[in-house]
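Morning. Coffee machine broken again, so started the prediction first thing and wrote up yesterday's gels while waiting. Chain of 162 residues, entered below exactly as on the submission form.
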Amino acid sequence: MKAEEIIASLIAAGQHVATAESLTGGLVCAVLVDPPGASEVVRGGIVAYQPEMKSTLLGVSADLIEERGTVCAEVATALASGARRELGAAWGVGTTGVAGPGPSEGRAQGTVFVAVAGPDDVAVAEELHLSGDRNQVRSGAVDAALSLLRARLREQAGSGPR
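Came back before lunch.
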């Protein structure tokens, strides 16, 4: 399972993770704290559902949100970097998107961006187009965010767990 591998990798590296979530509403953090040992490495999470909370709590540029909306790669990476910075973690995970029902901000339901910022504060984002109802989109976003974090941890470890 991804969460167990992530927690084990973070423990082995002596690093922490934090989340900044919009459409997932804390689900990424909830999955991360499920495995034993999570308390050693999970710093916490911020649910910033409204645009102003993304700016106020996580430092996402209000100008960026006004120009691009909240559903874009740049906001996802800013969320991930903000989680790292504000919660004092080596790794930050950010999620933003449209769970539905229906479109939002001109984006179709299922449009999701997940991002991970690492110790070098380089953030990478992935754009997803998920199908299904609101719960399925949110679940898919959690899976994608954890997969991206696991991949970044493996990159850092070189020949880490497969």
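The first strand starts at residue 17 and ends at 21. Going to sketch it on the whiteboard this afternoon.
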